[in-house]
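Deliverable D5.2: sample structural annotation.
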Amino acid sequence: MKYGIIGRNGRMGNEIYNLFSEKGHELVFSYDKEEENYIDNPQVLIDFSLPEAFDKVIEYTKNFIVL
């Protein structure tokens, strides 16, 4: 599965990354205060960001929706 993490560099973001990598899933998008990495649209977007990032989360979610 292709997945994305918002809040990738936090404790939970790292835990999710480690678990998903162990299971063979591919990180194709990550966003944090310091950086943004985009390879492809994720099938699943996981948010473990701080509340002040909410507007950015909504923006990314809208961009990744495929109708």
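Annotation notes: Residues 2-64 form one domain. The chain has one domain: 2-64.
The annotation will be released with the project's public dataset once the embargo ends.
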